[in-house]
Amino acid sequence: MSKIFFSFLLAIVLAQPALADEASVKKAVEDKLGGKVGSVTKTGYLGLYEVYVDGQIFYTDENISAILAGSLIDGRTMQNVTAERLQKLSAINFSELPLDLAIKRVRGDGKRVFATFEDPNCGYCKRLAKEMTSLDNVTIYTFLMPILSPDSLEKSNRIWCSANRGKAWTDWMIDGKAPTGKGDCDTSAVRKTVELGQKLKISGTPTLFFTDGTRIPGAVPLAQIQQKLDQLAAAR
Question: For the domain 3-89, what is the CATH code?
Fold first, then answer.
């Protein structure tokens, strides 16, 4: 290669704009969206940047010329990269949950612990409640999160004001027996739970949290819950 040609190539390379970094992409995305972005991380795929905002992930290039929504799948391993990253980014510090705002139910030795955020009128929550009746040796903290309707709030208040909250919750969710509480006690715990859910970016019920901070949204199969609890127990 001649020195003249090499010098020409070097000049072209030096003339190219510097590759964007995560901070500059973050600012560009915020300018375009007009809001705060949680984080921007360079991926190892096609020069894409992962953008995490409001509990969701999307992808873009360094020029923000396109925005891609949906799951990113690793073509070699066929693993869902987006799902794994979302699980990590949406994790919480379980020890910081205000468990006094939740209904506590203990079965067996109660050693396996997790929390749920549920609406009493949520059909998926009712299905999950019925499936979880077979779970043993667990402590379940259920946060009442009435987000579906005014009736959800009324039922949540009546359940919270019941003499036995755990029984009132189970009777309603599994047997359809209306709570007998009058809803005239201090129901600030229900209001605070809704505020907490907003802070944690909970967009739907049920949403489950495990002691390692892992978040699982939706009525997942009981086998998946069991597997997660066993995994955490083995790691202790």
Answer: 3.10.450.70
94-235 sits in which CATH class?
alpha beta
Q: Please say whether the beta carbons of 193 and 101 come within 8 A.
A: yes
Percent residues over pLDDT 70 in the chain: 92
DSSP letters for 157-175: HHHHTSSSHHHHHHHHHHH
User: What's the pLDDT band for 182 if we cut at 50, 70, 90?
Assistant: confident
The SS3 call for residue 199 is helix
**Cα 65 to Cα 88: distance, rounded to the nearest angstrom:** 27
The pLDDT of residue 15 is 37
d(CA 1, CA 16): 21
Q: Compute CA distances 182 → 27, 66, 115, 196, whole Å.
A: 51, 53, 26, 24
**Residue at 230: amino acid letter:** D
Q: Which strands sit side by side in the sheet containing 207-210, from one edge to the other? A: 103-107, 138-144, 112-118, 207-210, 215-217
Asked if residues 228 and 210 have their Cβ atoms less than 8 Å apart, the reply is: yes
Terminal CA-CA length for the chain: 62
